[in-house]
Amino acid sequence: MPTPCPTAILLVSCPDQRGIVAALAGFITAQHGNILALDQYVDAQDAVFFARMEWELEGFAFPLEEFPARFVAVADAFDITWTLHRSDKRRRMAIMVSKQAHCLYDILAHHESGEWPADIVQVISNHEDHRHLAERHGLPFAYIPVTPDTKATAEAQQIELLQKAGTDVVVLARYMQILSPAFVQAFPTKIINIHHSFLPAFAGGRPYHAAHERGVKIIGATAHYVTAELDEGPIIEQDVIRVSHRQGVDDLVRLGRDLEKVVLSRAIYWHLHHRLLVYKNRTVVFA
Amino acid sequence: MPTPCPTAILLVSCPDQRGIVAALAGFITAQHGNILALDQYVDAQDAVFFARMEWELEGFAFPLEEFPARFVAVADAFDITWTLHRSDKRRRMAIMVSKQAHCLYDILAHHESGEWPADIVQVISNHEDHRHLAERHGLPFAYIPVTPDTKATAEAQQIELLQKAGTDVVVLARYMQILSPAFVQAFPTKIINIHHSFLPAFAGGRPYHAAHERGVKIIGATAHYVTAELDEGPIIEQDVIRVSHRQGVDDLVRLGRDLEKVVLSRAIYWHLHHRLLVYKNRTVVFA
Amino acid sequence: MPTPCPTAILLVSCPDQRGIVAALAGFITAQHGNILALDQYVDAQDAVFFARMEWELEGFAFPLEEFPARFVAVADAFDITWTLHRSDKRRRMAIMVSKQAHCLYDILAHHESGEWPADIVQVISNHEDHRHLAERHGLPFAYIPVTPDTKATAEAQQIELLQKAGTDVVVLARYMQILSPAFVQAFPTKIINIHHSFLPAFAGGRPYHAAHERGVKIIGATAHYVTAELDEGPIIEQDVIRVSHRQGVDDLVRLGRDLEKVVLSRAIYWHLHHRLLVYKNRTVVFA
Amino acid sequence: MPTPCPTAILLVSCPDQRGIVAALAGFITAQHGNILALDQYVDAQDAVFFARMEWELEGFAFPLEEFPARFVAVADAFDITWTLHRSDKRRRMAIMVSKQAHCLYDILAHHESGEWPADIVQVISNHEDHRHLAERHGLPFAYIPVTPDTKATAEAQQIELLQKAGTDVVVLARYMQILSPAFVQAFPTKIINIHHSFLPAFAGGRPYHAAHERGVKIIGATAHYVTAELDEGPIIEQDVIRVSHRQGVDDLVRLGRDLEKVVLSRAIYWHLHHRLLVYKNRTVVFA
């Protein structure tokens, strides 16, 4: 497999208005950018325009550093909010985990396969259980216990560690502690959590118990960005599996593990490939 | 397709205990019943035993009318709660509908295909819209408008009509009125509703609006027995379909229609074939 | 629900090349067209560009009749193959059916709900069974029996009937006769069939028997455009349902019916809304 | 979680006949066995009866070693073919793998979680790539290269290694060599393979390329027992994921990996828990 040519990715949102697609496409084309993909979406209800545009860096008229200065006229004319990314810049990912390791295992497998443009720079846990697993894979592991009393200190320690490692995405791989608003604010739209239910059903603790109690015929898992409100952040991806009265809580837990890891990995993939935009507590997924 | 030999179906629940399966199977076999299916399930948590046993009537030692008297010794010994049914007895089904007709259409198609051992004895609506559709299919249609003021009278009228028609199952095919506890009590575990969300998420009104607002990536539909508490009855069947940010509320409504009708029809099928047992607000589905 | 403003829809394919998106969007914008959606896709392997562009007719600079003459410069410059459609033009749909009526029922329900911009102009069957159903819904029904000996004559009769009715889409709603290449050629990319298996598995006759024989754990249905080769046309949509060893052939047939009708209706919806492009015996679905 | 009480599991098949369920349940009950589950299924077409019966060893009247002698009268009377298993006997599992490691990673995660009553006794590969991974997890790794010329020798070496390790289940975790009939015969109904398509569609090599070429809208994975005929063995489990024209072959490969590992792990789970019976090249799954 040859290395694909590096690309630039522009994520855009603005009030919907005549001429916006033509303006965006026209700007890149005028600068000799070969557009590989232009996905756009209009929220008709609120009249907001979203787009993801990807073009080859080879042959593009100017270095990306100059993009803000060059693009400002278009951005101002259409009142555009935008972010720019390069496909050849590897992200720095941290993993937080508690006692259950199935998501961590799956992340390690994806990571080592090379399919993610990211390096795992830190593993943090409130238990020692998975030190061996992390270190076996050559990853720095930090044990930071959390109790109600030490929570503030622990979080300060975590934040320092993450920032020192230059973390730009934090994955909660079944990390069973609730993060404080301060922690969340330190990494806005950069923390991805996997919740073991089909949100908004069964938010909070022990969702498999609640699902069993309610007698649902399908269970699910939800990957979402973490916000200050528990299990209320923008949903990135969900998936489900059929169950029956025969499955006890233990079976739901077991079947759910395979769901959780797959849903989380899909969300990470999209995040790392700049395919997600957040708007009004929802995600636009340019999958 | 030859008519299958008529069968008896026994639905059973009792405290779990040694020897129960042997006792049930032994009783039927001793009476020369050829057992076609014995599905059993033990709720390990509560130590409750459930079973569905089906045997051929041909060659069975005594007429089913004598079953209670003959079975009483076994039933008493194991503290069994049971119901007995015949596969060749057609059920009398009533449909209640409001303005949306997709579930009604689907019920008519299933009904006319002959796959359900049931006759539709009455269609009731709080609107005149679908009189023509019902009557085109030769079904008695009753228009009973419901307003906050007339609700009690309207329900009395409905109950009278249903009882006069000898109704033993009521299907709410997107009937958009909430039934009073009194109505529900008149048809215990005999009213099946289709709710247009993946319960317990988005109970109550306008679930597709709520699902869109929350930004879920999958929507669902839920068929359940109606109890006194709105959308809280035992779930019979659920199914889901994947959506994305591109689907507005109108799209969810449209996609949901195909889900709703299919989920409702599956629930009706199981109910009519005596494959459902209710326990602790959950269903055991011997599918 | 207010009637949405009529739109124009342009479906485009051409060799992939720099500037194509900008040229398309620029052309419509320059003519004061408000672009509601621009979905594009590049087949990277073959370097082919596809797009669906929809814009409001209100305010557009010229009547659509002039589009070919006006667009020719762009089309020539980029070697574009295109078709143009109006959202306010109702299609003329014919249904062909045999003995199984579940897809026909479902089509009638969708049709009468008003969600399809189409009129059903003719129902044709090789059996008399469903005359009553069609006529009950006010639709012209033609009984054209087909035997090996009369097939050529029967097809000539069918084609004449369809052409006289101004048919522009033919839906095979479980029509169990194989169409000759001549028939297919008379309606290129205008005949949609539902096959009762997950193609390419179990092409040809009796797919549920074959699926049962093979012991698959999931069955499917496939809607596709009909080509001269049986069950080999471009796939439009597929869906599946889980089964187990417990389901006999009769159960697969029964469960499959709900799949077939839903898959077929989704395919019809996309076709009627000009969301399908065919390329190399595959479909691009701008869903 | 307390260790559950050890159980005995009896898998049974025989001609369907009156009294079989009563005889089985009666025999165990008479020997003071507490039946935890009795799942039965009758293939109506061929009149064959299948059952899985599980009972607690505690309190059972005799040691399992005596089962054959004690059960012979029942077995003879009903012409029963049976196998007997203990839940507390750990299986000895071997893994064969080539260059793709995603299934191996997933197996390691399941294995180390303790949810499988099995020990991994050997990993065999025709490449050196994953020696480090296996050894990191403390597993014996054997590199046995295979070329057309050395295939017979290599297989002899593999069989010897597997037999010396006391292997009673062989998992082909994306092992890309075709096993000879002799190899297969050495481990009858003991080799589980994962095929990266929804069989019987796309058997053989490069199924994702074939799926892309055919333009399917859903891809799948299939776990099956290996028989002498390639990709023709009894299917244990299948699952699918929706794709669109946007996914190139590389995307199908990537999405398929998550399917393959999950499907394979489910099949292993059922096999290890004695929930599978093979009949006429199909499986009965007492899930």
H/E topology pattern of chain A: EHEEHEEHEHEHEHEHEEHEE
Termini gap of chain A: 22 Å
Which strand-content bin applies to the residues of chain A?
Answer: 25-35%
Number of domains of chain A: 2
Structural class of chain A: alpha/beta
Shape of chain A: globular
**Annotated CATH homologous superfamily of the largest domain in chain A:** Formyl transferase, N-terminal domain
Account of the 3D structure:
Four copies of one chain form a homotetramer. By secondary structure, chain A is an alpha/beta fold. Chain A folds into two domains: about 5-85, ACT domain (Alpha-Beta Plaits, 2-Layer Sandwich); about 90-285, Formyl transferase, N-terminal domain (Rossmann fold, 3-Layer(aba) Sandwich), CATH 3.40.50. Helices cover about 30% and strands about 30% of the residues of chain A. The first copy, chain A, contains eight helices and 13 strands. The first copy, chain A, has helices at about 20-30, 65-80, 100-115, 130-135, 150-165, 180-185, 205-215, 250-270, and strands at about 5-15, 35-45, 50-55, 80-85, 90-95, 120-125, 140-145, 170, 190-195, 220-225, 235-240, 275-280, 280-285. In chain A, the strands form three sheets. A seven-stranded mixed sheet of chain A has the order 7-6-5-8-9-10-11, sandwiched between helices. A four-stranded antiparallel sheet of chain A has the order 2-3-1-4, with helices on one face. A two-stranded antiparallel sheet of chain A has the order 12-13. In chain A, helix 3 (about 100-115) packs parallel to helix 8 and helix 7 crosses helix 8. Chain A is globular and about 60 Å long. The mean pLDDT of chain A is about 95. Chains in contact: A-B, A-C, A-D, B-C, B-D, C-D.
